[in-house]
Amino acid sequence: MEPKNPLNREYGTPNYMKNIGNLKTVLVVDDNHDVLSLLVELLELKKFQVIGTANNGKEAVALYEKLHPDITFLDVIMPEADGIYALSMIRKINPEAVVVMVTTDLSQDTADQIEDLRANAVIYKPFDIDNLVQTVREIESGMHYTIRYTD
Question: Residue 51 burial by CB count (10 A; 0-12/13-18/19+): exposed, middle or buried?
Fold first, then answer.
């Protein structure tokens, strides 16, 4: 069995198995190992199937293109290639991709870029599991843009 290391993980679920029961396939991208591990753990606890992880925007785009996850959680501030770059490239691959940006950056410039690239939601760090799950549920129900702050 593979060791429990969420960094740069790739499982590659075949397309015909992408939706088993209520599971949704997820790609999680964050350069912070602790945040990445927490996101993976929380999502799996809520029965999402994490099929890949990455720690920068270039890896995110490559994994998105290969795995075609149902939902991508994407950090904004990362080395090598940031989340804004990754979101723009994912939009070119699939204009209808479901992407949730996760960030500490509260600047108006970043918010404008995220909105221009049509992210489905933004969750500001620190976050909790309820905000994470509620955001996904709102996306599933047809909401197109959600912003979540932690109280």
Answer: buried
